[in-house]
Amino acid sequence: MAALKYERITVPGAGALLEWEKLKRAGRGWPVIIGGKDDLERIEDQFTMADPNVSGLPGMELRSPKDILTAASKLSFPRDLRNWAGAYQAGDLRAPEGDWPGNVGVDPRGPSVATDIMTGKLLEHVHILLIPTTHGWEVPAYLRWGDWNACPPPEYHVAALRAWHSDFGAELVGMNGDTINLRAANRPKTRANAMKLAREQYGYCPDIVDQGVGTISALAATLMASEWWYLWWD
After folding, report:
1. Closest by alpha carbon to 182, among 80, 78, 110?
2. What's the pTM value of the predicted model, to 2 decimals?
3. Which of 26, 42, 121, 180 has the highest CB neighbour number within 10 Å of its CB?
4. Distance between CA atoms of 84 and 125, rounded to whole angstroms?
5. Residue 110, CB half-sphere, CA atoms under 13 Å: how many?
6. Dihedral of the CA atoms 80, 222, 219, 111 (nearest 10)?
7. Which is nearest to 111 in space by CA: 9, 16, 2, 234?
């Protein structure tokens, strides 16, 4: 992983969250759980991928974290998400509101990036990267994460995570090749606020509804019930 110069710590999957909390308290950078070996390779692939947002430069040019953070500072989320050419527009977001579910199950896994997606079992070895920032929402800029299929470019992830940290105390805990794990200290307290947040998350990450919970109300209910918020792109 020569391209990724960030410090890496490897722990058993069962101890990933405890190690993340320990590293966060140490204040040597922002820790992010990446997952196993294959996940780390996907992160590196994205990190070294040619950046289509570099206008007028050769195809192999890469933006620096500073450049991406500057772009993110000019964005207001969720309003400016529609400015991205690949964003789903209002007419594309057709999931029904649905009825509020009677029972809401809380996912007990914690960070899903520490588990095998097929079996649900904890990974034997999990990697954690220490990113040189004190703000978790800046991590997508340092990893140049995103900008494929319906997954927005990194500056939009920075803007989204920054907004949810401000509003809900949401912190980035895990991120693999296609998934983000957030832990929210202050979940929405009313159904109205939860529905507003669910619509934001659906516009940002349509797969969590269209290929996941099925309705906006179901997503809103989980956002109220669980401190863990899972976002993933197909």
Report:
1. 110
2. 0.94
3. 180
4. 36
5. 15
6. 60
7. 16
What is the DSSP-derived secondary structure letter of residue 10?
Answer: E
Along the 234 residues of the chain, how does pLDDT read in single tens digits? 557 899 999 999 999 999 999 999 999 999 999 999 999 999 999 998 866 666 544 555 789 999 999 999 999 999 999 999 999 988 899 999 999 998 887 776 789 999 998 898 999 999 999 999 999 999 999 999 999 999 999 999 999 999 999 999 999 999 999 999 999 999 999 999 999 999 999 999 999 999 999 999 999 999 999 999 999 998
- Tokens describing residue 16: 């990933």
Contact between residue 142 and residue 129 where contact means Cβ atoms under 8 Å apart: no
Compute the distance between CA of residue 156 and CA of residue 200 in angstroms, rounded to an integer.
13
